[in-house]
Amino acid sequence: MICCRWWAAGLSLVAVLSLNLISCGSPKAVKAAVKAEKDRKPAPDFTLKDIHGRDVKLSDYKGKVVLLNFWATWCGPCKIEIPWFIDFEQRYKDRGFAVLGVSMDEDGWDSVKPYLEARKVNYRVVIGNDQVADQYGGVSSLPTTFLLDQSGRIASVHVGLVSKSVYQDEIEHLLQTKHSSSGGGARRDANAAPGGAK
Q1: Is 2 contained in some domain?
Q2: 7, part of any domain
Q3: By the 8 A CB rule, do 57 and 46 touch?
Q4: Residue 138: how many CB atoms within 10 A of its CB?
């Protein structure tokens, strides 16, 4: 009886993984993951310190597509994603893209600084706190990643590990949206933002 349960559980896991693999490569699945512009809510602003003690304000990134990643040095899936994010920062930074890491390590820079140096992380990282985590829905699982559009609105959310290609396709989609929305679309967004987007 126990053997049958394990076998059934194994089949269920294979089915779930198969569905995930199918949807990862499908452009339709990626477009569905990126929210329609009318459904995007502004990302809560925050100011946190970087490795040099300088203030980093999220709203300063407006005008860029931002991959905002909540992570920790002890998080296994985070270790898988970080090389991808290093690659994205290098590949897309000249196209109006930035990665911003928010470490949720309780001992702060004591763990994070040597971790970043050892992995040659090329994007900005700040130390998060409970207040910022609460602003983003509690961030109860790591990694949790938000992709923000050029207006600073949340375009997609990923809790846990997803494939590199999903991130890549969503980043490309958001970067291309900027180029195709010149003129009327860009004006409409600026007028819709209370107090102006800039």
Answers
A1: no
A2: no
A3: yes
A4: 10
Whether 19 maps to a domain, the answer reads: no
CATH assignment at residue 95: 3.40.30.10
Residues 105 and 127 sit within 8 Å (Cβ to Cβ): yes
pLDDT in tens, 61-85: 999 999 999 999 999 999 999 999 9
For residue 35, give its domain range. 29-192
Residues 6+ apart with CB under 8 A from 85: 67, 69, 99, 101, 123
| Percentage of the residues of the chain whose pLDDT score is greater than 90 | 71
Three-state DSSP class for residue 188: helix
| Structural domain count, the chain | 1
Report the distance separating Cα 49 and Cα 125, nearest Å: 8
Whole-structure pTM value? 0.75
* 160 falls within a domain: yes
Rounded Cα distance, 187 and 192, in Å: 9
DSSP letter for each residue of 149-180: -TTSBEEEEEES---HHHHHHHHHHHHHHHHH
Distance, CA of 88 to CA of 154 (rounded, Å): 18
Q: What angle do CA 51, 106, 69 make, to 5 degrees?
A: 60
Question: Which of 173, 166, 171, 169 lies closest to 22 in space, CA to CA?
Answer: 166
